[in-house]
Design a protein that fits this description.
single chain; Transcription Regulator spoIIAA; 5 strands
Length: about 120
């Protein structure tokens, strides 16, 4: 699927990211969609096929997080391997981004939060 959102519901999309070099392009596509007309869904970014991230990817993820927050939407990252998790830990981004072990847990968490907020 790589980069194309799978709509879990009207308000939550799961994006199964691919490894580099496609990862940079896929994050850019998501950022472009965020710049388009709303409403925008909450996002689950599935890192299950991603084995490496670079500083450009991290910068793009931070920009995406900022845009999602500005749109009042949540974003969760899931299925992160040990190498990528260590990058998030070393950079302190484990405290910036929200994580889940797998897509279903991320979806359930977003759905519960959405229900509690009333949308």
């Amino acid at each position: 699927m790589g980069g194309m959102p799978a709509d879990w519901s009207e308000s939550i999309s799961v994006i199964e990211l691919a490894d580099e070099p496609a990862l940079s392009d896929e994050i850019a596509i998501v950022l472009d969609r965020l710049d388009g007309p709303g409403p925008h869904p909450h996002l689950v970014l599935d890192f299950g096929r991603v084995s490496y991230i670079n500083s450009s990817n991290i910068a793009a993820l931070l920009k995406l997080r900022k845009g999602m927050a500005a749109a009042g939407r949540a974003m969760k990252i899931c299925s992160v391997n040990d190498e990528i998790w260590s990058v998030f830990l070393v950079t302190g981004l484990d405290k910036v981004f929200r994580f889940a072990p797998d897509p279903m847990t991320a979806l359930a968490g977003l759905q519960i939060e959405q229900d509690q907020r009333g949308g």
